[in-house]
Fold this sequence. Notes:
Blueprint: E1 4-7, H1 11-22, E2 27-29, E3 36-40, H2 44-54, E4 63-65, H3 72-75, H4 81-90, E5 95-100, E6 114-118, H5 123-132, E7 135-139, H6 151-158, E8 164-167, E9 178-181, E10 188-191, H7 197-205
Parallel strand pairs: 1-8, 2-8, 4-6, 5-9
Antiparallel strand pairs: 2-3, 3-7, 4-7, 5-6, 9-10
Amino acid sequence: MNTQFLPGSAPEAFAQAVHTLQHGGIVAMPTDTVYGIAALLTNAEAIERLYAVKGREHTKAIAVLIGSPQQLGQVARDPGTAALRLAERFWPGALTLVVPRHPGLPANLSQTDTVGVRMPDHALAQKLLLTCGPLAVTSANLSGQPDALNAQEVLAQLGGRIEAILDGGSTPGAVPSTVVDTLVSPPRVLRAGPISEAEIIAAVTA
């Protein structure tokens, strides 16, 4: 497989990335932390390829990225008041919300009835997500290898394994997002990150 290099600033290249995703391909994309590899959320075969491309175990769920808070309803079944308040306060940004999974999502996205959802604070990522809809996304590296912070690092690890890389320049490689379980009250931090537990509790009790 020949992995295409697509400059994110070129309209025709962006359109090619959208076309590739809509037809079952895998596209690497920048986010506000590291590069990720994305598949159309409604395509179970493409999601299966995300596991294969990375060498990722199916016990590790794949997160969903969205381009606006309004897309949360496409991903979550009744997300609940706490999730909505946290989304309003911290999105876009480094917060992943664990919410009840929408019954229409492919089963191989997660082995549980929940899904992790985040809205990245990155203009090119948001543009792609608003154009294609929510995407299943996992980091653009082989399992156990370093995160890819630019398109060249993605190519070094995944060249020939994915259809395209949407080049949006270097990413900051920031601390991974805070992961919050919104199905319990009060919400519980599952993974510490830039947003503290105190900030989470304050947002849902304000």
